[in-house]
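Notebook entry, structure prediction.
Reason for the run: the old model in the group folder had no record of what sequence produced it. Starting over properly, with the input documented here first.
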Amino acid sequence: MATPTTLDKLEADSTTSHLITVTFRVRRFNPEVAAEASWQDFQLEIDPKERVLDGLHKIKWDQDGSLTFRRSCAHGICGSDAMRINGKNRLACKTLIKDLNPSKPITVEPIKGLTVLKDLVVDMDPFFQAYRDVMPFLITKGNEPTRERLQTAEDRERFDDTTKCILCAACTSSCPVFWNDGQYFGPAAIVNAHRFIFDSRDEAGEQRLEILNDKDGVWRCRTTFNCTDACPRGIEVTKAIQEVKRALITRRY
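New structure, fully documented this time:
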């Protein structure tokens, strides 16, 4: 066995010297064990520059393998690890320990407004159904084109912001209206309708506007800006909703 060099020891000391003790307070729920959720604390030795997702991995791999949560790309692209961290909707893979005042317990719980299946996993079916209901795809008439549908840079800019949505549900599950009425389409569905309503190549804008003119559509929005604050992609969600409202009004008068 090779003897550790001085450099090895220095690197090891450097690594351990940056570790701090952090308490993760996780909302646990297992319907096979108990009817009610409860909080459980975990003590971790972790580098404050690591992410909440890294902390959850350490808990699952080293302390409690039953901890359940969703994650995939771990780089803020898939949107699967949205959860409430210290009371705010965030992506666990983009939230650094050092930005959360780690001297106090870091609370982690599932996003609100959707049925909790286990621990941090919620039933996303209602969320994705609302997304499907607004027809989030390009709809055109006539024969299939022989070349790509061209568009000016100005036309593309009109809906550029709402193309950034990663369907994480952070905006929808931060909305007080959605918490109290799961029938509301929610901000994410409206954002994805906006993306096609204002696309110059699309021909189903009127249909989408009629869908969102329903009692569970855009008029339920109370402009609290929770959705805009929660969006990990920086989309101006409230602005997009207001633009859809304005389009509904101006098309009639």
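Summary: The first helix runs from residue 6 to 17.
The old model has been moved to the deprecated folder.
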